[in-house]
């Protein structure tokens, strides 16, 4: 970690983190790379401590997250406050997001949360877009996230959306147009170029963002098994409705029609622009931000 010692995140000892998490007693969530625990810093600030499993992939992921998050700062990106690397123990300390991840708020089958109104959904979609536009267009090196999905969008106490989980990200120098990389990300959110083993660009994130837009609009999961033989895939269902000029049937019924039809139609069109099969036909995230702001 010598190369990242001089960055802003604080280096914690393992005993520091055991103390602030009460020995990792309160679990906030679990993911593919380990658990996330609630902690409280001596100054009273709540934090989320991510404990990575000691696997080869986990180690790579740890260095990726610290290197990336230590150098970038944006209102719509989760802030890395510190890290710990002791023996096989690798932990990341993030700002705590009071309202958890987006998936707990948008799906119709999530009964424990209140329903987000259309204005809140628009702000969340814009926040995600701004965070991604910053990663792609405003950092010294272009950063491709590679795993955009509702579980990786966190909400603070004011429901401000922040992009999280940079463990799979790839850095690209500005003169690099693409990267070749092994398949990563989450099925259902992967752009077609992954399946074609083609070069990956920031437009792969744009595709994933398009899928999440449809989920936020509809309150439906992007992929589910209806029966033994039948599967439901949200983009295909949405396209069918739009083709039949039944756009408004896509909208989450829990909104009870309390949304501006023209704006909803515009956002659905933006989602489909993001879902173009050919990456070069998809808009940049900066353009997406402009379109969403204009709607």
TrEMBL record:
UniProt-listed Enzyme Commission number(s): 2.7.11.1
Main location: membrane
UniProt keywords, alphabetically: ATP-binding, Disulfide bond, Glycoprotein, Kinase, Lectin, Membrane, Nucleotide-binding, Phosphoprotein, Receptor, Serine/threonine-protein kinase, Signal, Transferase, Transmembrane, Transmembrane helix
Subcellular location: Membrane
Bilayer disposition of the protein: Single-pass type I membrane protein
Keyword Nucleotide-binding: yes
Pfam families the UniProt entry points to: Pkinase
Family in the record: Belongs to the protein kinase superfamily.
Protein name, entry field: non-specific serine/threonine protein kinase
Organism: Selaginella moellendorffii (Spikemoss)
């Amino acid at each position: 970690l010598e190369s990242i010692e001089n960055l802003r995140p604080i280096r914690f000892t393992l005993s520091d983190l055991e103390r602030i998490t009460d020995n990792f007693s309160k679990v906030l969530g679990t993911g593919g790379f380990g658990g996330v625990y609630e902690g409280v810093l001596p100054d009273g600030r709540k934090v989320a401590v991510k404990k990575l499993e000691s696997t080869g992939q986990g180690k790579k992921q740890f260095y990726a997250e610290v290197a990336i998050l230590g150098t970038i700062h944006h209102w719509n990106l989760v802030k890395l406050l510190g890290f710990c690397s002791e023996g096989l123990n690798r932990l990341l300390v993030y700002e705590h997001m009071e309202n958890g991840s987006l998936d707990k708020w948008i799906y119709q089958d999530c009964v424990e949360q209140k329903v987000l109104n259309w204005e809140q959904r628009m702000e969340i979609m814009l926040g995600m877009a701004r965070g991604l536009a910053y990663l792609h267009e405003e950092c010294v090196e272009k950063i491709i996230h590679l795993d955009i999905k509702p579980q990786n969008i966190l909400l603070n106490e004011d429901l401000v959306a922040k992009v999280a989980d940079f463990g799979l990200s790839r850095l690209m120098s500005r003169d690099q147009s693409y990267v070749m990389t092994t398949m990563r990300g989450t099925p259902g959110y992967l752009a077609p170029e992954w399946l074609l083993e083609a070069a990956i660009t920031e437009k792969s994130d744009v595709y994933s963002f398009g899928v999440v837009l449809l989920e936020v609009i509809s309150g439906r999961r992007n992929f589910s098994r209806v029966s033994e033989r039948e599967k439901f895939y949200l983009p295909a269902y949405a396209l069918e409705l739009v083709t039949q000029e039944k756009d408004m049937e896509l909208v989450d019924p829990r909104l009870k029609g309390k949304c501006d039809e023209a704006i909803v139609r515009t956002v659905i069109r933006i989602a489909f622009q993001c879902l173009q099969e050919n990456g070069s036909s998809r808009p940049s995230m900066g353009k997406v931000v402009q379109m969403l702001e204009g709607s």
